[in-house]
């Protein structure tokens, strides 16, 4: 409390945003409370559940494990930057089609974690998807339809990549629609 | 237009949730909003000697600190809503904050309010409470013994209730050739929705209205109870359940915390938000199960079962929760015969106070426990008489011809054909071949087990007169309003309160078929006491069979009125109007027609309505079913146990569920999967661990195992459809079947795998260590 607030500036979903925060503030609280990006959720206090997973400089990170000040000058993608209602990201579209969500609370974090997985392994087996979900917990679905959704997303993204003639799964990360701040 | 009921439509709710546009409790920000935190007892049982909040109040951002003494006479105790009759029920008052004695780790001691969510937690650390620790009663059987510490001084032996149902004559028991006895422990588990609980209060001193957003599966029950607790008119208390990240029963209860937040918002004249921490959730939110079940199954050598006698000793925690008293009594004790035509049954239940967090309904509430004991003991009986467990089940099934079937405890099962899903499941797993393979694997020294559960479940609460007779402090009917706008677009209001189940989709499908309009023309409204007439919420798998039925009836009423308007416009008799796919047509006169949208406009404009007809096109229904519904089915699990490590691997999970008519096969299957994951979680990984002093040792997600994706094989799920006769949809509940069925199926499979070692039971969860020990002991012999 005696420590002065710091200005933290990030590029989130393609937009530069900044806010003055306490140095102890978690990145997830900065996103939610200071930037109003409430699509990223908090499900635990010990970094087990993964509901807060976002992309930090292209890698999936649990945003409760970082301080906001550590993210200063970083590029962030949250669920709000994935796709729009009219133009869903393949991961969002696949979760919808395969019923990969019920309450939808863990979903943004799970989707981010799975996008991270596909960046590393664009064509994972069912077993690899299940293991890739080690860092997230879903209490509603029993995971099976999430697995189906990730398989479908991987296929769509691989096809898109083949069409573009290069492995661009990563470049799809930020949706083509408007960037919400 | 093709009918959509019965088709796997994508959910209406998803685009919003998938794009970060959901609105969960913690997403709500109000001008001037304060943050609350609750200081909780670190002791299971202690006197509060002194509370010193001076240091906390000196922090610049701290606005207020309330203690139990501060609130005496200002907030009433939180009552239980299930006062089971004829069981000498003793309800100890639960004040929103402990006044002079704490009774469980997690009991609220002080409420702190500050400007910021970090500052309020700083303040918690600065409150100094002087306790005098007392001995604690932790486990139910010990808590009942002479000399055990008393949780409430005036409640002898800590016995909150002693309930009995059914009697068995001595001759029946004496004439049995076989008796199989076992004691099972259905351990305490945590519902653990990924969104914890939350409450936000906002008070308008001008109007005297209090709005409470809270994580509630039943906002109207919250309003009814909290209006009494807070002393505010129901007409001035608005309860809204925002989007909710799961519930599973853990958000049925009316908790002290919600009353505190409502009180503070009114007292301070500023909005107040409270978000439960995950570690706090483990001690402050009601847990599930925690029942010691002693079973005796009687019958003949040929497998004819004659009687079942059960004693359930249930740990109710330190106070009676909202539904707590009904779980181990009514929900459990009337279902102990399961799917079997066992002519005699009796159940005796003790509900016991302990120095632990209260227990309440958790997915299935009593039925998983009832199913567990019957499905486990029937396997042991089969083993005793050397009969295949499938054959013994078949021999004793309530026969298809007997429906509606009255069980030994007097419940009337609405419809059933237990052979149908069993047969289907056996075919899917290829049972006979599976048993042969198991034999061969055993010869090779591999431990393969096959477990079966042929369950039936009571759900779809239910007839209100029965609710009254069993002491439930509420009705259990549902209401719906179908409102047709001038454009023909429709808003549907339902008293159920979904939080992941997908009612906007399934109820939308019902309305789309009834009115012949596209799904996109239908919007659903739930979970707001100002928008929706009195209703009872979402639990006990009641939403579709009761709430969905109310929606269907209201939509039928809309059509009925619309037909009259069409008849008037087309100058025909109402009986001559055919309504199909959104078109009203005069029978035999194809050209003479009106669209649903044209009638919607005509009704709302009211320029030319039949004589005496009121304007508008809107109907409300209040549906109180004549009976509960009883879904059933067969789950078969194949496991392999690693001899060296005690680890269990599920090789196959096959389930065939009969939930009556299925509205949306995709969301129904999702419910089955999720239910199974929670049931298997109970069998294999989850379990509360309390020390003998009442400290919760499994109080974070680092210590309590929620199932992960890699723990499961693909679930092979399918349905059979035996319609229910008690609602116009023919639907039964689906939300709890997976949990109810899976716990004994998995346990039976592991016990089957360990059969060579002669082991009959291991307490859940089946951690590798426990299994390994059993194998080691077996090898030693």
UniProtKB/TrEMBL annotation, chain A:
Q: Does the keyword Transmembrane apply?
A: no
| Pfam families attached to this UniProt entry | Fer2, Fer2_2
Top-level taxon in the UniProt lineage: Bacteria
- The record places domain 2Fe-2S ferredoxin-type at 6-82
The record ties this protein, via InterPro entries, to: 2Fe-2S-bd, 2Fe-2S-bd_dom_sf, 2Fe-2S_ferredoxin-like_sf, 2Fe-2S_ferredoxin-type, Beta-grasp_dom_sf, Diverse_Oxidoreductases
Keyword terms: 2Fe-2S, Iron, Iron-sulfur, Metal-binding, Oxidoreductase
Q: What is this protein called?
A: Carbon monoxide dehydrogenase small chain
Q: Which organism is it from?
A: Bacillus badius
TrEMBL record, chain B:
**Secretion signal, residue range per the UniProt entry:** none
Can you give the residue ranges of the Aldehyde oxidase/xanthine dehydrogenase a/b hammerhead domain?
Answer: 19-135
Q: Is Oxidoreductase set as a keyword in this record?
A: yes
Q: Which InterPro entries match?
A: Ald_Oxase/Xan_DH_a/b, Ald_Oxase/Xan_DH_a/b_sf, Ald_Oxase/xanthine_DH-like, AldOxase/xan_DH_MoCoBD1, AldOxase/xan_DH_MoCoBD2, AldOxase/xan_DH_Mopterin-bd_sf
Q: Does the keyword Oxidoreductase apply?
A: yes
The source's superkingdom equals: Bacteria
Gene source species: Bacillus badius
Q: What's the protein called, per UniProt?
A: Carbon monoxide dehydrogenase large chain
Please provide the record's keywords in A-Z order.
Answer: Molybdenum, Oxidoreductase
């Amino acid at each position: 409390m005696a420590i002065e607030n710091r200005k933290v500036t990030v590029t989130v979903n393609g937009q530069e945003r900044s806010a003055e925060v306490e140095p102890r503030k978690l990145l997830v609280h900065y996103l939610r409370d200071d930037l109003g990006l409430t699509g990223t959720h908090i499900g635990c206090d010990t970094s087990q559940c993964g509901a807060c997973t976002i992309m930090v400089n292209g890698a999936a990170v649990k945003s409760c494990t970082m301080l906001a000040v550590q993210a200063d000058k970083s590029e962030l993608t949250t669920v709000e930057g994935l796709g729009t209602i009219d133009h869903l990201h393949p991961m969002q579209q696949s979760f919808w089609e395969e019923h990969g969500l019920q309450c939808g609370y863990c979903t943004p974090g799970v989707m981010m974690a799975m996008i991270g997985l596909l960046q590393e392994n664009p064509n994972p087996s069912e077993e690899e998807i299940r293991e890739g979900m080690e860092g997230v917990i879903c209490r509603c679905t029993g995971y099976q339809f999430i697995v189906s959704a990730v398989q479908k997303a991987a296929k769509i993204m691989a096809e898109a990549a083949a069409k573009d003639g290069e492995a661009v799964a990563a470049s799809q990360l930020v949706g083509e629609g408007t960037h919400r701040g | 237009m093709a009918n959509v009921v019965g088709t796997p439509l994508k959910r209406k709710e998803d685009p919003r949730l998938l794009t970060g546009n959901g609105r969960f409790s913690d997403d709500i920000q109000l001008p001037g909003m304060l943050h609350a935190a609750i200081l909780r007892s670190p002791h299971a049982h202690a006197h509060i000697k002194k509370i010193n909040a001076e240091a906390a109040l000196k922090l610049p951002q701290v606005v207020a600190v309330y203690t139990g003494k501060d609130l005496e006479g200002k907030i009433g105790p939180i009552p239980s809503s299930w006062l089971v009759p004829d069981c000498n029920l003793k309800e100890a008052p639960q004040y929103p904050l402990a006044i002079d004695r704490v009774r469980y780790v997690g009991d609220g001691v002080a409420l702190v309010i500050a400007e910021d969510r970090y500052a309020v937690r700083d303040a918690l650390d600065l409150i100094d409470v002087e306790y005098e620790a007392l001995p604690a009663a932790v486990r139910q059987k010990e808590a009942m013994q002479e000399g055990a510490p008393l949780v409430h001084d005036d409640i002898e032996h800590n016995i909150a209730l002693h309930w009995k149902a059914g009697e068995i004559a001595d001759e029946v028991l004496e004439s049995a050739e076989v008796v199989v006895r076992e004691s099972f422990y259905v351990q305490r588990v945590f519902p653990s929705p990924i969104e914890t609980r939350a409450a936000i209060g906002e008070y308008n001193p001008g109007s005297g209205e209090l709005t409470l957003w809270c994580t509630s599966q039943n906002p109207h029950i919250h309003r009814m109870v909290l209006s009494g607790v807070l002393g505010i008119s129901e007409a001035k208390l608005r309860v809204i359940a925002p989007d909710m990240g799961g519930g599973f029963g853990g958000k049925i209860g009316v908790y002290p915390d919600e009353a505190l937040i409502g009180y503070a918002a009114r007292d301070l004249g500023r909005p107040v938000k409270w978000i439960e921490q995950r570690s706090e959730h483990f001690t402050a939110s009601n847990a599930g199960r925690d029942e010691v079940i002693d079973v005796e199954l009687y019958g003949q050598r040929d497998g004819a079962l004659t009687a079942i006698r059960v004693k359930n000793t249930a740990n109710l925690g330190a106070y009676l929760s909202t539904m707590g008293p009904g779980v181990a009594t009514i929900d459990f004790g009337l279902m102990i015969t399961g799917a079997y035509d066992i002519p005699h049954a009796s159940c005796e239940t003790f509900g016991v106070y302990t120095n632990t967090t209260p227990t309440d309904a958790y997915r299935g509430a009593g039925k998983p426990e009832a199913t567990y004991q019957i499905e486990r003991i029937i396997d042991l009986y089969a083993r005793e008489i050397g009969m295949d467990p499938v054959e013994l089940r078949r021999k004793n099934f309530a026969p298809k011809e007997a429906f509606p079937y009255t069980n030994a405890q007097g419940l009337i099962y609405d419809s059933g054909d237990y052979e149908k899903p069993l047969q289907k499941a056996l075919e899917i797993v290829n049972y006979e071949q599976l048993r042969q393979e198991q034999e061969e694997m055993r010869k090779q020294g591999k431990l393969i087990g096959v477990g079966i559960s042929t369950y039936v479940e009571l759900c779809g609460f239910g007839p209100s007169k029965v609710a009254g007779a069993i002491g439930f402090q509420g009705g259990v009917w549902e209401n719906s309003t179908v409102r047709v706008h001038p454009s023909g677009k429709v808003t549907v209001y339902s008293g159920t309160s979904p939080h992941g189940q997908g009612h906007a989709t399934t109820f939308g499908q019902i309305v789309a078929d009834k009115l012949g309009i596209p799904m996109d023309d239908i919007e659903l409204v739930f979970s707001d006491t100002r928008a929706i007439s009195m209703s009872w919420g979402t639990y006990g798998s009641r939403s579709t069979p009761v709430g969905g039925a109310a929606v269907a009836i209201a939509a039928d009423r809309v059509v009925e009125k619309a037909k009259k308007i069409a008849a008037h416009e087309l100058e025909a008799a109402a009986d001559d109007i055919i309504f199909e796919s959104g078109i009203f047509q005069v029978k035999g006169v194809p050209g003479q027609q009106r669209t649903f949208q044209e009638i919607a406009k005509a009704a709302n404009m009211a320029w030319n309505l039949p004589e005496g007809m009121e304007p508008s096109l809107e109907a409300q229904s209040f549906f109180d079913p004549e009976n509960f519904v009883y879904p059933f089915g067969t789950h078969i699990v194949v496991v392999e146990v690693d001899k060296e490590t005690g680890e269990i691997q599920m090789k196959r999970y096959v389930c065939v569920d009969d939930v009556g008519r299925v509205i949306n096969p995709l969301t129904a299957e999702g419910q089955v999967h999720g239910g199974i994951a929670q049931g298997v979680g109970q069998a294999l990984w989850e379990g509360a661990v309390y020390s003998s002093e009442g400290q919760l040792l499994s109080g974070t997600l680092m210590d309590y195992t929620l199932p992960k994706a890699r723990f499961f094989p693909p679930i092979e799920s399918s349905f059979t459809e035996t319609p229910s006769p008690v609602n116009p949809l023919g639907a039964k509940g689906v939300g709890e079947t997976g949990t109810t069925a899976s716990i004994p199926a998995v346990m039976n499979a592991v016990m089957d795998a360990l059969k060579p070692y002669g082991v009959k039971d291991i307490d859940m969860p089946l951690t590798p260590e426990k299994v390994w020990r059993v194998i080691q002991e077996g090898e030693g012999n």
